[in-house]
Amino acid sequence: MGIISKVIVRSRTKGFWFLSLFLITLTAFGQQSNDYKGLPFIANYEPATYEAGIQNWDIIQDDVGRIYIANNLGLLEFDGKFWKRYGLNNTKVRSAFWGKDGRIYVGSQADFGFLSSDETGTLKYTSLADSLPSSIRDFDETWKIFGQNNVVYFCTFKRIYVYDGETVEPINSDKRLDISFQIDNQIYTQITGDGLFFGNTTRLQAHSQWGFFLKKFGFQISCPTIMTNG
């Protein structure tokens, strides 16, 4: 009441009661708003609301604000009010990536591809993995997708597939790959027992600090460590 007391002493004008009421209201509002200060506005959506699986693996946003979520029962779309699900060959979707070309690239069980709008604006799925020869179609799941310039990388535990907008080419490995990740437009992956590798569009190369990572798993490697020792 210190501020209001000074107003009472110094104010003898016609508008005194209005000013006092305003200050009291403002003070009360300020006290209430402090309860929410610094807290984000969060809305929780249950599986029953979006009518899909209980596990969500990845989330992206397009250039008009729509949200896309990799879900066990397909790819979910949310425009802020309504939900929609795309089945995508009835597989579990593990990863999603919004491309500069306006396509939504997705990775799932034994499959990867993209969704693009047809002439009516409806999203349609095109599988890129279906075009692969059987000799390199033997991967399990596509866990990560990254983009660099006009190239998209689909990362599996078997190999990394590189899509340039026209064709898909593999980056092969004789051993199982761990989870891949991207730092400063560079794709990294780890081969257990062999260390850390980085990839270009054709092959994997051993990282300069490969020895440090020989007995470490990919999920134990942090971005600052790689950037410092690169």
Helix and strand content put the structural class at alpha+beta
The proportion of residues in beta strands is: 35-45%
Main beta sheet: 4 strands, antiparallel
**Mean pLDDT, nearest integer?**
78
The tally of strands reads 16
Percent helix range: 10-25%
The dominant shape is globular
Summed up, the helix count is 4
- End-to-end separation: 60 Å
Order of helices and strands: HHHEEEEEEEEEEEEEEEEH
Low-confidence stretches: 1-29, 219-230
Strand order of the largest sheet: 1-2-3-4
C-alpha Rg, in Å? 26 Å
Q: How is this structure best described in words?
A:
Mean pLDDT is 78; it is low at 1-29 and 219-230. Strands 1-2-3-4 form a four-stranded antiparallel beta sheet, with no helix packed on it. It has a four-stranded antiparallel beta sheet with strand order 5-6-7-8, with no helix packed on it. The longest helix is centred in the first third of the chain and has 18 residues, at 16-33. The relative contact order is 0.07. The protein has helices at 2-10, 16-33, 47-50, 223-229, and strands at residues 56-61, 67-71, 74-78, 83-86, 93-98, 104-108, 111-117, 123-127, 142-148, 151-156, 160-163, 168-171, 181-183, 186-191, 195-199, 204-206. The chain is α+β, with helices and mostly antiparallel strands. It is 17% helix and 35% strand. The protein is built from four helices and 16 strands.
Helix and strand topology:
Blueprint lengths: L1 H9 L5 H18 L13 H4 L5 E6 L5 E5 L2 E5 L4 E4 L6 E6 L5 E5 L2 E7 L5 E5 L14 E7 L2 E6 L3 E4 L4 E4 L9 E3 L2 E6 L3 E5 L4 E3 L16 H7 L1
Antiparallel strand pairs: 1-2, 2-3, 3-4, 5-6, 6-7, 7-8, 9-10, 10-11, 11-12, 13-14, 14-15, 15-16
Helix pairs in contact: 1-2
